[in-house]
Amino acid sequence: MKKTALILALAATLAPSLGRAQVAIDMGTVTCGDYLAMSPELDKVFSAWMSGWFNQKHGSTTVDLDRFATNVANVKKWCGNNQKSSVMGALQAATGGAN
User: Could you give the domains of the chain?
Assistant: First the structure.
């Protein structure tokens, strides 16, 4: 009986983590059109990720929320005219091909 109770307790502990969906996105294949069509929640996460990637590549360790908002607006504006372009490719081109 103790063994069954232990197994049930362990299963109950692990069950919530098994129910979470995992989403994987190949950032290199996201086009500007995809980016502009994202839900507001995904847009925020994607924009934050792009900002972190860009800043890490350039050695920046500061957070400037006003500059972040401006940068996101600029990328969205550029993407509006280049919807078939890769967002990551556009960022790499804008930064001189940083990988």
Answer: 26-94 (1.10.890.10)
